[in-house]
């Protein structure tokens, strides 16, 4: 009733002409809205005056069924027809509508709730719209189970009130009459919960039906279809990290599945390993390759789809987002799914033949288009052949991520480093002789002190630039003779530092420098100045399960062992929780290690304890 009042109030405020103009614009923008607007128009007449009941019922039923077919089936099932359901009332046996193609005759029940009529209309229409050419090749119970699964999807979308009607008038009569329907329906519902019922199962059934029809094959395929269903249920029931079979080969189905999640392989190696897997599927005979992505991998899914479209042997058929039920918390979640099919217009020419036809050879300079960039490698298209460039080969300088030097869609010159026939892949490099900075005349020698610009750090080493193109590595331990407590790796980035060269390798093309070696080693003096028993005031800088690190005067640092903390009494028994950073402690030096450059301490209160 609230909807009816709102519609009347809207018409009263805007005026009938304005409302009609708005409706006309909506219909022009999307013709499918005509039935919905017709339903809304007749709703208040039907509710208040019991007028236009047939028009209202026809509009409501037509729109509901059409939207279900469009959003739940057409959007995910590539082979389904783009149909529009219209309800027309027949007044006599000579009505012209009875002679038109696509007409189904239904008897509707007179009721205020049209849920049952909507489900009845859909039930009659489904065999004509979903896998119609396969129906003669499957047993009746299989056909009924498929339609019941689709009706269940429709009932779920109509609201909570619809499911009892579906169960009472459609599900219960069918499963009570035939146990085979019940068993198959249970499996199909489980498959639908995973989001693969329409997108994968019905898609493959539709393709099978068209194939059998074209061959004039009339044999029953129910057993083969159930076996394929059991294979798909393996993916639906898969636990996280569980290894399962992802290829299925039979006389009717040749299907491969690739699963994507947020894994180290996707983040570090990019699309290349997955393209290799797709290549394996094609070579092994998969006619359909499904890519299924979970939410953490949605961005990576798009990258893989774009990269796979460059393979002429396969064609992208459809990509869609489907709803699925999470196994962990039973909440609705999304999956992204894509389908590629073998392209009959192209043969799987061998990699070696392609290389020879393109005239490619090792050491050759070629132009390539970057298709995908990840941390450890990038995928490049070279004259229609997949090639990879590994992180180290992107530059003569140290590379943390390929994206530092390469970007998607960039065209660039590369050198063919090797041609790996076993992997079917070109390996490229950007470390050409012309760009090699290792020229004796420009290099400093061991003992030279040079000024470098600190550019990056990997936690263990800093990297600096000397001049424009000479890289010098400064190990973290070479920053200072003293321990750098809690230093941020980014604090030195961009600064100018004077370093002394202490190692040079012509073979490895590396120079190593040190900041601390510009000064003499202070640890012999520290050892002499801190004899055993020296009392100091320390400040806690770090607490770990095995020791406590403290700051000492003159920029020094020391270590108090776990055993010493426990020995100190009750208040330090649970030192991991009771000690805080910045807390003061009275300590005593127990030993100074010159070679290890460490100071071992004990708590002052422990001195004299046995």
Description:
This protein is an alpha+beta fold and 610 residues long. It folds into 5 domains: 20-213, no CATH class; 238-342, Alba-like domain (Translation Initiation Factor IF3, 2-Layer Sandwich); 351-435, OB fold (Dihydrolipoamide Acetyltransferase, E2P); 440-518, OB fold (Dihydrolipoamide Acetyltransferase, E2P) (Beta Barrel); 525-606, Nucleic acid-binding proteins (OB fold (Dihydrolipoamide Acetyltransferase, E2P)). The protein contains 17 helices and 20 strands. The protein has helices at residues 2-14, 16-29, 33-49, 53-74, 115-129, 140-158, 162-177, 179-193, 197-215, 222-236, 264-269, 272-284, 298-308, 351-358, 523-529, 562-567, 575-578; strands at residues 247-249, 254-260, 288-293, 314-325, 332-342, 365-373, 377-382, 385-390, 411-420, 425-429, 449-457, 461-466, 470-475, 496-505, 510-514, 535-543, 547-551, 557-561, 584-593, 598-603. It has a 5-stranded mixed β-sheet, sandwiched between helices. Helix 3 packs antiparallel against helix 4 and helix 4 packs across helix 5. The chain starts with a helix and ends in a 7-residue tail after the last strand. The model is unreliable at 22-29, 37-43 and 45-52 (pLDDT under 50).
């Amino acid at each position: 009733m609230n909807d009816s009042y709102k519609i009347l109030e809207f018409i009263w405020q805007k005026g009938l002409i304005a409302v009609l103009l708005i409706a006309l614009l909506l219909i022009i923008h999307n013709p499918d809205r005509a039935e919905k607007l017709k339903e809304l128009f007749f709703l208040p007449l039907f509710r208040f005056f019991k007028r236009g009941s047939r028009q209202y019922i026809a509009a409501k039923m037509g729109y509901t069924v059409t939207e279900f077919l469009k959003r739940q089936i057409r959007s995910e099932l590539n082979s389904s027809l783009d149909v529009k359901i219209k309800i027309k009332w027949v007044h006599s046996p000579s009505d012209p509508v009875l002679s038109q193609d696509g007409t189904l005759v239904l008897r509707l029940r007179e009721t205020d709730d049209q849920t049952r009529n909507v489900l009845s209309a859909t039930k009659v229409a489904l065999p004509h719209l979903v896998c119609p050419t396969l129906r003669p090749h499957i047993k009746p119970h299989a056909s009924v189970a498929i339609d019941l699964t689709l009706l269940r999807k429709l009932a779920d979308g109509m609201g909570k009130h619809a499911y009892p009607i579906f169960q009472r008038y459609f599900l219960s009569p069918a499963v009570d009459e035939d146990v085979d329907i019940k068993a198959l329906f249970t499996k199909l519902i489980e498959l639908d919960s995973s989001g693969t019922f329409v997108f994968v199962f019905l898609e493959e059934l539709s393709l099978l039906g068209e194939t059998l029809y074209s061959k004039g094959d009339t044999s029953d395929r129910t057993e083969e279809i159930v076996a394929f269903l059991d294979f798909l249920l393996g993916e639906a029931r898969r636990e996280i990290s569980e290894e399962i079979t992802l290829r299925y080969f039979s006389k009717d189905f040749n299907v491969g599945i690739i699963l994507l999640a947020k894994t180290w392989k996707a983040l570090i190696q990019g699309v290349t390993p997955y393209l290799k897997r797709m290549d394996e599927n094609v070579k092994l005979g998969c006619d359909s390759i499904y890519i299924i992505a979970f939410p953490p991998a949605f961005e990576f899914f798009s990258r893989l789809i774009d990269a796979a479209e460059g393979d002429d042997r396969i064609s992208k058929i459809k990509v869609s987002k489907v709803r699925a039920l999470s196994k962990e918390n039973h909440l609705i979640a999304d999956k992204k799914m894509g389908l590629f099919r073998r392209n009959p217009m192209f043969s799987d020419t061998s990699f070696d033949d392609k290389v020879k036809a393109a005239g490619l050879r090792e050491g050759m300079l070629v132009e390539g288009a970057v298709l995908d960039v990840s941390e450890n490698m990038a995928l490049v298209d070279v004259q229609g052949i997949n090639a990879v460039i590994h992180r180290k080969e992107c530059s003569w300088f140290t590379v943390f991520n390929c994206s530092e030097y390469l970007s998607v869609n960039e065209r660039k010159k590369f050198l063919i480093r090797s041609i790996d026939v076993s992997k079917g892949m070109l390996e490229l490099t950007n470390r050409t002789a012309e760009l090699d900075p290792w020229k004796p005349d420009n290099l400093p020698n061991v003992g030279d002190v040079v000024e470098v610009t600190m550019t990056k750090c990997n936690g263990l080493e800093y990297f600096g630039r000397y001049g424009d193109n000479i890289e010098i590595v400064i190990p973290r331990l070479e920053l200072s003779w003293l321990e750098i407590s809690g230093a941020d790796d980014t604090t030195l980035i961009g600064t100018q530092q004077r370093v002394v060269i202490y190692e040079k390798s012509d073979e490895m093309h590396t120079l190593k420098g040190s900041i601390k070696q510009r000064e003499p080693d202070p640890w012999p003096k520290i050892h002499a100045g801190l004899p055993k028993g020296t009392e100091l005031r320390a400040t806690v800088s770090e607490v770990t399960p095995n020791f406590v690190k403290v700051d000492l005067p003159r920029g020094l640092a020391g270590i108090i062992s776990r055993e010493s903390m426990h020995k100190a009494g009750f208040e330090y028994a649970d030192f991991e929780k009771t000690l805080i950073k910045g807390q003061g402690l009275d300590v005593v030096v127990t030993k100074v290690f010159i070679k290890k450059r460490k100071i071992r301490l004990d708590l002052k209160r422990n001195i004299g304890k046995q």
